[in-house]
Amino acid sequence: MLTLVTVNYQDPSPTLRLIEDLHRQPSGNFSLVIVDNASAPEHKQRLRDATEQLPFPCVVLWNDENAGFAGGTNKGLRHAQGAGAEWILIINNDTRVDASFIADLTTRTTGLSSGIFGLPLVSGTVAWLRTELKHDTGAPTPNSYIIGAAILIDRTTLATLGYLDERYFLYFEDVAYTLKARRQGIHVDFLPSPIVTHTPSQSTSKLSSPILLRYHMRNAILLNQSLGPLWVRIATPLWALGVIMRNVVKYLCIPSVRPQARALMLGSWDGLTHHYGILH
Questions:
Q1: What is the distance between the alpha carbons of residues 235 and 153, in angstroms, rounded to a whole number?
Q2: Cα separations in angstroms, 137 against 88, 106, 121, 206
Q3: What proportions of the chain, in percent to the nearest 5, are helix, strand and coil?
């Protein structure tokens, strides 16, 4: 049995579009788990109404607080495990799939060995001491990581690998998950099909937003300190202090970039002081 796990936060319109795509699947041999991250009541009601009568099993799990992408996904993974799913697809709610998606994916999983797999979307490239990592549409390389918008994993691998690291809350958890899998000797690969189309949500599409800059900086430090090679772990505090010093100068000298400079300083301090989880 294949189970899809997705996370909803606030406006459910992207989630409802994904549900519409799944409604068109001729194969009903799958289930959907939606984890709502403490959305406003009116958004919750729209989600309830849309999931009451579907031609495939659908469960909505309600969080009392925003657990982030990692925390919300982990709640869905645990539910799927408990329900006996053989394969689980972590899929962003702002993705779109065509009418043959489930049939193609079911065919793919029939011949797959254990491991974690990326679907055709884009892959990411691991780079150290960077707040942004490059996304590639070309052929994956041994240094590629699986983008969190579409991660396929079997139940045996999940039992061995465990869940996403909730300290990240948002961003870089997919990089950490891929690196963790490789270090445990788990097979990591990228499938040629089925295709997933990803349109990033407007709430997280602008990296210039100060809070997103802060998450990127904080989580880049966490990734480098926890999973980087020795030279990276040694260099990370110096890199973070350098970011703080440069942005102190920007904050004092360039009023127009003060919100971004402040966010990078705070994110650096968050990472150096191990201030993880949700940021306010």
A1: 33
A2: 24, 24, 7, 20
A3: 45, 20, 35
262 neighbors 210 (Cβ within 8 angstroms): yes
CA distances from 132 to 124, 164, 207 (A): 10, 19, 9
Cβ(58)–Cβ(34) under 8 Å?
Answer: yes
Give the mean pLDDT of 15-30. Answer: 92
**Is residue 39 exposed (0-12), middle (13-18) or buried (19+ Cβ within 10 Å)?**
buried
Q: Beta partners for 116? A: 153, 188
127 vs 149: CA distance, rounded Å: 19
How many angstroms separate the CA atoms of 259 and 21, rounded? 39
Q: Tokens representing 54?
A: 């579907």
What is the chain's alpha carbon radius of gyration, rounded to the nearest angstrom?
19
Q: Quick one: average pLDDT of 61-82?
A: 97
pLDDT class for 122, splitting at 50, 70, 90? low
Dist CA 164 CA 75 (whole Å): 10
Q: Is the pLDDT of residue 202 over 50?
A: no
pTM assigned to the model? 0.91
- Find, among 280, 160, 180, 254, the residue nearest to 223 by Cα: 180
User: What does the pLDDT average to over 38-61?
Assistant: 95
- Residue ranges in the chain assigned as alpha helix (H): 13-23, 41-50, 68-82, 101-110, 155-161, 173-183, 210-227, 230-253, 258-272
